[in-house]
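Researcher: Checking consistency across runs. Here is Energy transducer TonB again:
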Amino acid sequence: MEIIVYLIECSVCLSIFCLFYRTVLQSQTSYQFNRWYLLGTGIGAGCDAEAERVIRESIPWNPGEQRGKFVKVRLVLPITFRLGD
């Protein structure tokens, strides 16, 4: 029974997070605040630590390079969590 209550609480928190993100932060003009908000919040339950562990243990990343100079590159690495098995 405790696990069901916990999952409901997590779902509610995640729904609130997504709603706030969609309504306030998704505009093109708030990238800086958007980044800090996403870094400051986490989904909890050890998921943040596990995502960080997976990224650290992945293959080494090479910086972006164009015409012999390093350039900023955006990398999106989707991480999917599955409960139970």
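Researcher: Does this match what you'd expect to see?
Model: One thing to look at in this run: The chain has three helices and two strands.
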